[in-house]
Amino acid sequence: MVLTPRERLQALPVERQVQLLDPAEHEFAEHGYEQASINRILKQAGMSKGQAYHYIAGKADLYYAVMARAMARLTTQLNPQAVMEAEPDQFWEALSVLFARVSTCLSQDERLAALARRCYDSPQSIAALKPLWDGLFEQLEQLLRRGQVIGVIRQDLPLSLLAPMVFAMAREADQWFALHWPTLTAEQAQTLNQQVVLSFQRFMGLP
């Protein structure tokens, strides 16, 4: 079976992936997708273009790999499974804790926060991350379905309508926080997070 460049990158030992992804992460966090330079990344990685393009199909592919790794790092710290496994009387509190952890993680990891701010820089950066958005949408559908089963999520709207509406709300909230994060104090971020959770509860919860 012929592997794609992305599959070849994923098959590398972690230390070899780091050789390329660490300088790429720094470049994208510092300059954003549009202004990031593949040449600068490869110079820092000590790789030729021939070597690099064996593992990436292009700039968008490298950006996706960087953001997928960052998302995995964030997910490990968030433990979203706790919301999926919450009992009905704990569901919204578990969701609130999840949002609070996002704020904490971003405040403690400036590189991660910079990547989060940059992912909405341009239509190209958003398009490059489509597989990530699709994966997050699937997770949201699972969460909503679970919430309906345990009786905390509304069922008067079909899931095929409810999920895209909630996802759009989440994307807008995420983009707002990404753009305004540098201006918020930790207390302001936590307060706004709580208000966002309440907004989701009012919309998603039982009518």
From TrEMBL:
It comes from the Bacteria. Residues 37-56 bind DNA. SUPFAM superfamilies: Homeodomain-like, Tetracyclin repressor-like, C-terminal domain. Keywords: DNA-binding, Transcription, Transcription regulation. Residues 14-74 form the HTH tetR-type domain. Coiled coil: none annotated. One of its GO terms (molecular function) is DNA-binding transcription factor activity. InterPro entries: Homeodomain-like_sf, HTH-type_TetR-like_transc_reg, HTH_TetR, Tet_transcr_reg_TetR-rel_C_sf. This is HTH tetR-type domain-containing protein.
